[in-house]
Design brief:
240 residues; alpha+beta; DUF4391 domain-containing protein; six-stranded mixed beta sheet; 9 helices; 2 domains; DUF4391
């Protein structure tokens, strides 16, 4: 999707649109050597784009701050990467350097991943990432963005706005991947389901390669047991 299409689908006011390349030379000074290597190896040259700066001034949504949380502004990035396997690490690094919650759309060719996180306020006024939402790779970004457009979100404060957007992306992910819903659209439950998915696939692959019938059946039974566990967290749409 083009940058303008992304912002239009999210229905963000034009006053919030930034549409500029993030100056990596300024960021580079704050990175450790391993972080710098990560960015250089995974991020395409001039690939960090700030799409929007969502603030009280351009949305009339109230800031939020408590003893443990802070939501003053929200920054929407798009980052072009050559592969997706380190997007969580990139997100954590950027999040540690900024005092604002981030929404990052990672893009590689025609595919996307969305990464957001719950967080806690640190003593120096920055934010510490806690639960991370990382959607699976998708070419259907529009399905996610349209579910989380401005009109659909709780705009009581930036805290409710941000967390509701995360919940909408969890709902879109469970609908797209499992044709089901997850209780209260909880990030941690989606992470658990994804972990079970990975374990199931590993067992299925082992079963396919295993020449001994007894071992093959053992792998299949273990995979079936994990599928039953996964089903506990998913509610099929037709049963609602």
């Amino acid at each position: 999707m083009k940058e303008e299409e992304i912002l239009t689908t999210l229905n963000l006011p034009k006053e919030s649109w930034t549409l500029r390349t993030f100056p990596f030379n300024q960021l580079e000074k704050q990175l450790t050597l391993p972080q710098r290597k990560l960015f250089q190896e995974r991020i395409v040259a001039r690939g960090i784009r700030i799409l929007a700066t969502i603030s009280e001034r351009n949305t009339n949504i109230l800031k939020y701050e408590s003893e443990t949380e802070k939501y003053e502004e929200i920054i929407l990035f798009q980052i072009k990467v050559n592969q997706f396997n380190k997007v969580k690490d990139i997100y954590k690094t950027l999040a540690s350097l900024m005092p604002y919650p981030l929404i990052i759309l990672f893009n590689s060719e025609d595919s996307y991943k969305i990464v957001m996180s719950e967080h806690k306020k640190t003593d120096n006024g920055y934010l510490r990432v806690t639960n991370i939402l990382e959607t699976t790779e998708t070419i259907n970004l529009n399905a996610y963005l349209s579910s989380a457009n401005l009109d659909a979100l709780d705009k009581t404060s930036f805290r409710t706005f941000y967390l509701d957007m995360m919940a909408k992306f969890v709902a879109a992910e469970s609908k797209e991947k499992y044709d089901a819903s997850i209780e209260d659209n909880k990030v941690e439950l989606l992470e658990l389901v994804m972990k079970l998915d990975k374990e199931i696939q590993q067992l299925v692959n082992k079963a396919k390669k295993e020449p001994q019938l007894n071992r093959r059946i053992e792998y299949q039974l273990k995979a079936n047991k994990l599928k039953e566990e996964r089903a506990k967290y998913l509610t099929k749409e037709e049963s609602q």
